[in-house]
Amino acid sequence: MLDMLAGASGERLLGDAYLADFEEHFWKIGPSGFWKLERLQGFLEPKDDSWVASSQGDWRTSFTLLEQRRESLSRHYDKIRAHGFETWRIRVVEPPLTDYMRWELRLLLLRDELGGYTRVIDSGRVKQFEAHGVLPELITLGDDVMYELLYDDNGLQQGGIRYSQRELIVRCREFIQRLYGEGEDIRGYFTREGLLADSEQH
Fold first, then answer.
1. Would you say the pTM of this structure is higher than 0.85?
2. Are the C-beta atoms of residues 148 and 137 closer than 8 Å to each other?
3. Spatial separation of the C-alpha atoms in residues 132 and 117, rounded to whole Å
4. Residue 28: which residues within 8 A CB-CB, separation 6 or more?
5. Phi and psi of 65, rounded to 5°?
């Protein structure tokens, strides 16, 4: 997978420049949709009150705060559908789960329930593509824009590299779709791993 990006020319966008660029292109996605590959197992989300609570070990508050987002997220996905596209993501999971992953998977389950379709795939299933390093975090927006997300050493997002070569974008999207096709429904994963009961205990 990393070989797909080798030699590709992209524009490095950091901070507000990345956020503005993403927002500009997001609502123009079109029927090809939003596809995301998430690989890393830990990030920092200091602006997210639910993540902050989980990082302090207050899981009950963390999950309560996530559930309070249901109405706003429902409106968000209604707006996405009104714009004529949908979103899909494949989340690589690597046991044993980090605390970050336990938190994020709960958020992704909520998104999935509201229309942000999510599947998970075990890290062992992607090792064949990681001979030269772990898979990048990628987002494709329709046919015209793709971002390779950038993080600092602590897992704080810095921005992304934007690619606009359609052939590259289509090739990477097809790779993400392949993994998605091999993935497991997130609710089925929660049930199989006992994570719903685990979250209720917290």
1. yes
2. yes
3. 29
4. 141, 142
5. -65, -35
Cα torsion angle, 100, 44, 50, 27, sign: negative
Q: How many residues does the chain have?
A: 202
Q: Residue 202 has what DSSP assignment?
A: -
* Phi, psi for residue 3 in degrees, rounded to 5: -65, -30
Task: Please tell me the distance from the alpha carbon of residue 191 to that of residue 189, in angstroms, as a whole number.
Answer: 5
- Cα–chain-centroid distance for residue 49? 18
* Distance between CA atoms of residues 123 and 91, nearest Å: 9
- The per-residue pLDDT for range 115-169, each reduced to its tens digit, is 999 999 999 999 999 998 999 999 999 999 999 999 999 899 999 999 999 999 9
How far apart (Å, rounded) are the C-alpha atoms in residues 39 and 124? 12
Q: Is the peptide bond before 96 cis (omega within 30 degrees of 0)?
A: yes
Residues 6+ apart with CB under 8 A from 50: 61, 62, 63, 65, 66, 69, 103, 107
Scanning 58-121, the segments in alpha helix (DSSP H) are: 59-67, 70-82, 99-114
